[in-house]
Write a structure and sequence with these properties.
Helix 8 packs parallel to helix 13 (283-293). This protein has two domains: 3-109, Homeodomain-like (Arc Repressor Mutant, subunit A, Orthogonal Bundle), CATH 1.10.10.60; 135-316, Heat Shock Protein 90, CATH 3.30.565. It is 42% helix and 22% strand. The strands form two sheets. Strands 4, 5, 6, 7, 8, 9, 10, 11 and 12 form a nine-stranded mixed sheet that branches. It has 318 residues and is of the alpha+beta class. Residues 118-133 have low confidence and may be disordered.
Length: 318
C-alpha cells in the first residue's frame, strides 16, 4: 500500500473517529478487497486495522476526559458498545482507568497519525542515506541513565556520596541516592506542581514510540511515560514523599509522612513491556555507563546489587 493511499485511510479514521468505522469503507478507499487491505495495513502499520482504530479512539478519549466529560459520555461519544468495554480497553492500553487519567493527568495532545517504520521490534530510519536499525535495548537502558544522571549531578555538586543500582525481579531496576532529593515540601499543591513539571508524563503507545528520535536527553517526563510502572520516594526536610505512576500518569495523591534525618531519592521503574517486550537489562551496559560518567567525581561510591558478581561496587574516593 503506497503512502498516499495510507494517508487517505488514516485521515478517514480521524475524521470519523466518533463513528463506527467499517472495514469495507476503508478497503474501498484503498481500492482493495477487505481481506487484502487488512493484510497490507497490518504489514505497513505493524498492527491490525481494528487495533489501530481502537488506539486512535482511546487517544481522542483522553482529550475528551480532560475536558471534563463523564466516562460514560466519552464511551458513547467514541462509539464503544458499553461503559465496561470502554473502561477495559482503556486500561489495557494505558494501564490506568479513565477516572484516574481524568483526575491526575493534567494535559494531553492527541498525536498526529503517522506511518511508522517498524521491523522486528526495531525502529528503522536513515543515516547518511542508508537504512539502519535502532536497538530497543539502547532505549530501555536510556530510561535508567536519565535517572542516574540526576544522581550523578548531585554527586558532582558534592551533595551525594552514595548511589545504589539494584536489579530486581520482573526486569525492574531501583536507583537510590543520598542526595538532597527533589524540592518537595509539606505544601501539597506546590509539591504536586513540582512533580508535574519534572516527572509527570502521559501515555505513549508503541505507535508513537516508533516515531520518536533518540532518547538521549529525552527528559524524565518522557522516560516516565515509557515505564509500565514507576515509584518515586523522596526524603527531604524530615518528610518522606511517595508517588506511583503508570505510563506517566500519577495513580494517587502525593503521600507525605514523617521521617527522621534522612535525605535522598529512590526510583523503582519497570520499562513498558508493550514497547520493549522481553528485552533485559545488561550489567555490562550499565557498568560501562557508570564508569564513563564517574570520571572527575570524588568521594562517590556506586553499588550494584542483584548483578553478577553479587555486590559489585565502584568507589571514587579521592
Amino acid at each position: 500500500m503506497d503512502n498516499e493511499t495510507l494517508e487517505k485511510v488514516l485521515a478517514y479514521v480521524d475524521n470519523h473517529i466518533c463513528q463506527k468505522i467499517n472495514l469495507c469503507d476503508l478497503s474501498e478507499i484503498a481500492a482493495y478487497s477487505p481481506f487484502y487491505f487488512s493484510k497490507l495495513f497490518s504489514e505497513t502499520m505493524g498492527m491490525p486495522v481494528t487495533g489501530y482504530i481502537r488506539i486512535r479512539k482511546l487517544q481522542y478519549a483522553i482529550a475528551s476526559l480532560l475536558e471534563g466529560q463523564k466516562v460514560i459520555d466519552v464511551a458513547l461519544l467514541y462509539a464503544f458498545d458499553s461503559h465496561e468495554g470502554f473502561t477495559r480497553s482503556f486500561k489495557q492500553l494505558f494501564g490506568s482507568t479513565p477516572s484516574t487519567v481524568r483526575k491526575y493527568l493534567t494535559s494531553y495532545t492527541v498525536p498526529l497519525y503517522v506511518v511508522p517504520a517498524i521491523a522486528n521490534n526495531r525502529r528503522i530510519g536513515k543515516v547518511d542515506g542508508k537504512m539502519c536499525t535502532k536497538n530497543l535495548q539502547h532505549d530501555m537502558h536510556q530510561l535508567v541513565f536519565e535517572f542516574l544522571e540526576q544522581s550523578f549531578e548531585e554527586a558532582k555538586a558534592a551533595y551525594c556520596t552514595k548511589i545504589t543500582v539494584s536489579l530486581l525481579s520482573d526486569n525492574r531496576i531501583k536507583i537510590s541516592d543520598n542526595g538532597r532529593g527533589l524540592p518537595l515540601s509539606k505544601d501539597l499543591q506546590a509539591s504536586k506542581i513540582v512533580l508535574e513539571k519534572i516527572l509527570a508524563g502521559s501515555p505513549i503507545t508503541n505507535l508513537e514510540y516508533s516515531q520518536m528520535g533518540d532518547l538521549v536527553q529525552a527528559g524524565l517526563q518522557t522516560v516516565n511515560s515509557l515505564c509500565e510502572a514507576l515509584h518515586i520516594s523522596v526524603s527531604r526536610h524530615g518528610y518522606k514523599f511517595q508517588q506511583d505512576y503508570i505510563r506517566g500518569v500519577a495513580q494517587h495523591d502525593l503521600e507525605i509522612s514523617d521521617l527522621l534525618h534522612v535525605t535522598g531519592t529512590e526510583i523503582t521503574l519497570k520499562p513498558d513491556t508493550t514497547i520493549f517486550g522481553d528485552t533485559l537489562f545488561s550489567q555490562k551496559i550499565i557498568c560501562d555507563w557508570i564508569k564513563a560518567n564517574s570520571k572527575g567525581i570524588s568521594n562517590l561510591k556506586v553499588d550494584l546489587l542483584g548483578f553478577e558478581p553479587c555486590g559489585t561496587s565502584y568507589g571514587f574516593m579521592q
